[in-house]
Amino acid sequence: MIQTAIFWPVAVLAFWTFAILLLVPLVRIRAVIARRLGPKDFRYGESERVPGDVAIPNRDYMNLLELPVLFYAIAIILYVTSRVDPIFVGLAWAFTGLRITHSLVHLSYNNVLHRIIVFAAATLVLLVIWVRFAWDLAAAG
């Protein structure tokens, strides 16, 4: 297996994160132009006046910087230790797809139950990646 294959799902998730980052100021600027909010409402992050539709892209961006850190770390570890195989790559794509799905739910109709199910599935996939890596590492002695 080509070891660099693990970086395709990593790159897709990174680009998705950048896309959401671009969405944050766009939504904020629109809210200020529409006079729904003022620049001071963002002085310390987001004031209590910031409505959900303006706050959600920022919250989604923060979500993309939390759990995925463990994904980025394991991808690098798998590459460096030459343990990338089709199963790890498939799991990496599953994680990336689930994280993008989580964002899409969050940014669209934002059903909390749907969001938590997708989040839990992504977390489980990432846990499986880490457990499998640890198992392989222990087996190698």
Folded structure, characterized:
It is elongated, with a radius of gyration of 18 Å. It has helices at residues 7-33, 52-63, 68-80, 86-107, 112-140. The chain has 141 residues and is mainly alpha-helical. It is built from 5 helices and no strands. The longest helix is centred in the C-terminal third of the chain and has 29 residues, at 112-140.
For the structure shown, list the relevant keywords.
single chain, 141 residues, mainly alpha, 5 helices, 0% strand, elongated
Layout of helices and strands, plus pairs?
Blueprint: H1 7-33, H2 52-63, H3 68-80, H4 86-107, H5 112-140
The main pleated sheet reads as: none
How confident overall, as mean pLDDT?
Answer: 96
Which descriptor suits the 3D outline? elongated
Number of helical segments? 5
The total beta strand count reads: 0
Query: Helical residue percent?
Result: over 70%
What portion of the residues fall into strands of 2 or more residues?
under 5%
Radius of gyration over C-alpha positions, nearest whole angstrom = 18 Å
Low-confidence stretches: none
Distance between the termini: 22 Å
The secondary-structure element order is HHHHH
Which structural class do the helices and strands define?
mainly alpha
